[in-house]
Write a structure and sequence with these properties.
The protein has two helices and two strands; from the N terminus they run ββαα. By secondary structure, it is of the alpha+beta class.
Amino acid sequence: MTITTVMERPRRIIECGDLTLGRRRGQSDFEPAFRLIEESLDHLRPWMPWVAGHSEEKTRDL
């Protein structure tokens, strides 16, 4: 017997109090994401090892 489960696609934006989650939209989200990383490098460095190799090219590849 095979059971197939169909999952609904999540909403594009999920809001829960002060927290808002949204799906990424590819390259259209690049500039704000890159700027946020750049502004937060000092805070990210102790917790995120990938920051050491942070560059525009690597962020675009992500």
